[in-house]
Amino acid sequence: MDQDIINKTLAFFAEYITPYLTADYQGEAFHLFDTIHFAALGAILLIILLLAISREKFSKKNKENFRDTAAAILLVNEVAWHLWAYFYSEWTIQKMLPLHVCSILIWLSAWMLIKKSYRIYEFAYFLGIGSALQALLTPDIGIYGFPHFRFFQTFISHGFIIIAALYMTLVEEMRPTWKSLLRVFIITNIYMVAVYFINAYIGSNYLYLNHKPATTSILDVLPAWPLYLLYMEALGIVTSIILYIPFVIKDWSDNRGLKEAGTDRLDDIL
Q1: pTM for the full model?
Q2: Which pick of 71, 105, 140, 228 has the fewest CB atoms within 10 Å?
Q3: Structural domains in the chain (count)
C-alpha cells in the first residue's frame, strides 16, 4: 500500500509537475504584453494597492509578520532559483552570481525588511523600484512562459523587490532625501566600475555593462556600446528623480501648510 502511494505520487509529479520544472520546456514560450503578462503585472499592482489602502491599519505585530513573510518569500524564491539552475546544469559564475542590481537587491531587501535598515532602503527605493520595474516589463525568461517555474520565480522576485521598497515607504514611513539620491548615485557608479572589470575577467555581462542582453530590452533602442552606457546612466538619473518627485510635492505641501498655519496664528495674536 505504501509503495502504491509512492508510485502514484511519483507518477503525479512526472505528469503534472516535472514538465513545468524542466530546463527543456516544451510548453508555450513567454510572450511580451500578452494576457498572462498583464495578469502577472496586475497581481503585483493589486498587492501594492492593498498596502496603500490599508497602511494605517497595520498593527506592530502585523508589520513584523508582513516583513518576515516578504523577506522569506524573497529568500526562498531566490534559493529555489539557484537550486533549479544547479540541478539542470544552468548554474555558472557568468550567469548566477548576485551581481545584477535586482539579484543583489533580493538579498539586501530581505535584510532591510528584517532589520528595518534605512541605508539599504535608500538603494531599494531608487535602484530596486526602477530596475525591477524594467525587468517586469521586459522579463529575461526566454522560452519559460506560464506556468513554468521560471515564470513565477521571475515575477515573484522582481515584484517583491518593488513591494518591499514601497512597504517600507507606505507602512513603515521611511523616505529618501536628496542626500540619499547622492549616496545612491556615487556608490552605484563605483559598483558599476568594479562589476565591469569582473565581467572582463570572467567573461560575464552583469549589469549589461559589456554588451547588450540577447533578449528584448529597453537597451535595444539605444546606440551601440559604449554609448548606451551613458544613456543608461541618464535613464537611471531621470528614473530616480521621478521616484523622488512625490516627496518633493509632499515637502512643498507641508511647508506651505506650516506657513499658512503660522499666518493664521499671527492673525489670531494680532
Answers
A1: 0.91
A2: 140
A3: 1
